[in-house]
Amino acid sequence: MTAYTATETDATLPRELLEFLPCATPESWIEAALANPALLLIDHAQCEKKAASTAMSLMFRYVDRPELLTKMSQLAREELLHFEQVVAIMQERGVDYSHLQASRYAEGLRRHVARDEPQRLIDILIVGAFIEARSCERFARLIPRLDAQLAKFYRSLVRSEGRHFEDYIGLAQRYAGAPAVAERIACFAAHERALIEDTDTHFRFHSGVPAAV
Questions:
Q1: Residues 195/105, Cβ–Cβ less than 8 Å
Q2: Which of 137, 142, 146, 192 has its CA 20 to 30 A from that of 154?
Q3: How does 103-124 read in b/e, with b if 16+ C-beta sit within 10 Å?
Q4: 101 belongs to a structural domain
Q5: Torsion on CA atoms 54, 17, 139, 131, rounded to nearest 10
Q6: What is the pLDDT of residues 37-59, one digit of tens each?
Q7: Which domain holds residue 45?
Q8: pTM (predicted TM-score)
């Protein structure tokens, strides 16, 4: 059972997505995001690139799974489009695209992925679902406090990231069955909650609670 505490801004999110996440994004992260708009956009762009790269990697590794190939091909195209859109917004706002050290979030989840198949694939899909669900939740939490242009853009991303979450979970359940997937989700949920609620020194799109300055 999850411990997600819903907020008013969560009304636009699918119930299944909220029940999937083990906790809400801390308010301190929201405040940090609003205080660091350039960092938010730069790391958001990097996240979109990484999401496309992950989808492409799955396509190359699991060529014998046609459902996965179709879903990941669609997802990669959409993530690259989002990347282009974020970069365009950055250019409009005079934000230079620079390299940032990745947050510990994605790697912290992948550390618990099984080494052997077929469990490895199932775990990778579950991790993908967590990344997409958390992204969706954070977009929704930010929307009411952003300017009109960025709010409109993030509102469109809530819909697409929600579909991506559903795609990842749907594939995992197709290949392993709902009961087995639920057991692994519970395992990863504990790690995801720790990554979201523990302190992080550097602000990133998927970072945890900002360290006190």
A1: yes
A2: 192
A3: bbbbebbeeebeeeeeeebbbb
A4: no
A5: -20
A6: 999 999 999 999 999 999 999 99
A7: 28-96+116-208
A8: 0.94
Q: Where are the beta strands (DSSP E) in the chain?
A: 199-200, 209-210
Is the bond preceding 26 in cis, omega lying within 30 degrees of 0? Answer: no
Are 58 and 68 within 8 A, CB to CB?
Answer: yes
Length of the chain in residues, anyone?
213
Question: Domain count of the chain?
Answer: 1
For 142-162, the pLDDT digits (tens) are 999 999 999 999 999 999 999
Q: Which residues pair with 98 in a beta bridge?
A: none
What CATH number does the domain containing 156 carry? 1.20.1260.10
Amino acid at site 149 = Q
For residue 200, give the nearest of 186, 187, 213 by alpha carbon.
213
196 and 4 in contact (C-beta within 8 Å)?
A: no
User: Does residue 2 lie within any of the structural domains?
Assistant: no
